[in-house]
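Worked example 4.2. Below are the chains of a multi-component assembly; read each line carefully before continuing.
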Amino acid sequence: MTAPRTLYDKIWDDHVVHQADDGTCLLYIDRHLVHEVTSPQAFEGLRTAGRKVRAPEKTIAVPDHNVPTTPGRDTFIENEESRIQVDALDKNARDFGINYYPVSDIRQGIVHIVGPEQGWTLPGMTVVCGDSHTATHGAFGALAHGIGTSEVEHVLATQTLIQKKSKNMKVEITGSLRPGVTAKDITLSVIGATGTAGGTGYVIEYCGQAIRELSMEGRMTVCNMAIEGGARAGLIAPDEKTYEYIKGRPHAPKGAAWEAALSYWKTLFTDEGAHFDKVVTLKGEDIAPVVTWGTSPEDVLPITGTVPAPEDFTGGKVEAARRSLEYMGLTAGQKLTDIKIDTVFIGSCTNGRIEDLRAAAAILKGKKIAPGMRAMVVPGSGLVRAQAEEEGLAQIFIDAGFEWRLAGCSMCLAMNPDQLAPGERCAATSNRNFEGRQGRGGRTHLLSPAMAAAAAVTGHLTDVREFMAEMA
Amino acid sequence: MDKFTTITGIAAPMPLVNIDTDMIIPKQFLKTIQRSGLGKNLFDEMRYTQDGAEIPDFVLNREPYRKAEIIVAGDNFGCGSSREHAPWALLDFGIRCVISTSFADIFFNNCFKNGILPIVLPQEAVDVLMEDAKKGGNARMTVDLEAQTVSSSDGVTFAFEVDPFRKHCLLNGLDDVGLTLEKASAIDSFESRAKVLRPWV
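Applying the procedure described above to all two chains together yields the following structure tokens:
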């Protein structure tokens, strides 16, 4: 009889290749996702040492960070450095024989959207990528986290990682969400409650009725931002919704393998009485649509709130808040709904899936964006884009005045031509509001796709619930 | 990887909390396909104006901190993206050690892979070292990895914890990949077992 284990404990135990006396483990990696920015030095390291990729069939590459989201990019990328990185990925993928979705492939998109979409991500797996938002895949009950380039090289060469086990943290969202409140509001509210270092040293398991009630897309949004809460990874136990999502995807198991997989997946839950080192509980009905006001993802407030003053904080956060307010061009006491915006970005690995586009389009149907507003939708993959076109969502965006772009990371991190100019203020469905994140001097307010759509129409941060009352 | 044993050097005070990897090395410098050369763009948007002139107030633009080898930082240093360009940029500038109350997980890991020692100390200790770093001039801090101590310029010494395996790798400048490949047979047998238990993977 083994002691009760958490979901994280179970996945961990099933992947330990070797454990040293001091607890340092060699952990086996089932899926390694690769993109163009954090991999060139790793492949170069392999070449220099004369090493091969140990498991090319478990390695999947796709360019996403650097690629423009405008037509013509499959023949020529204007920015020379971006082109060199994308070309390098192209060459590395072919030289080392790994799975690859080039820009010209309709399946190309943001690596964390492509993985689940193609059925590469499955419950109980270990998944890594040289990108912090790898946490996204935790929505399937996979242990997924970001790694640095040296670790990318390590995984390419050995299909393992040297790891010490993290502690277990439970984040429970009880009850149901109120109308107008989404997965994005959950994940931002958790970070607001625990801080950006609240999860440091932990793997989070999200649970509770409100999490169960989320779609797979919503669960991916929640897990995606586990990293903004400082956690190594975020996990959600798989259930019928998970299996339903996976079934029939290109790389999902089929036939007898499906049945075998399913019976294993059904063991992937936290045992009754398993120990958590930290527990955070929020009531679903208490969560409001939220926005960020500052330059840290923990700077979260309900849209009905006002901009705080530095004196409202303690310790090092006082100076950080002062700096944030100056950077953001905001004054304490200002109503959040009075903040005017000039740019709206809907997309990213946080909110670039079909359900996100549906939520935004529902607000925008029959409406126009505010005069002077620059608004863009960047689907998370070529397949999301195609589906949105088929469902008529693309036309709603275009009619409202949005630009309808090709798939990529786009303005989430401004490594490509989609950027903010200094002083521009953006309502963004992405994951980071750091100084300069969307372009030097650019100002970012993080929010849900529905909230972003509402802001695009009114020209200022807006409580989406007012829109919904109007629509009803 | 260069060995890390003992350093005695200038420590730059950066009391701001939540210094993120976008601040350490902004995204426009991630387009390199090399590891070296990023030091000139370390903290780029805090260090230079839009037209490339130095911002005189910024700590690394002031003497003696231009030659800093240690940073004493506010809480949660290195949060944000997994970019290893952050430790590469620090290293290329000449930073070998960062001291804070806490670090973001991925950044912390990345430091060890590049011969940089991140040291976690309690708030009181970081406060003392922060004040010491602010002295500038001829003040020098000493970090001794073997002894696991940090000493301020006036000899106040704090002990720190470090993972024994990581300490061993830093002291000897060892490359992880080579070490792991010595365990290739364990990986082989894991794969054979997994093929039976989870054939769909």
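Take a moment to check your reading of the output against the notes. Chain B is about 35% helix and 15% strand. Chain B has a mean pLDDT of 96.
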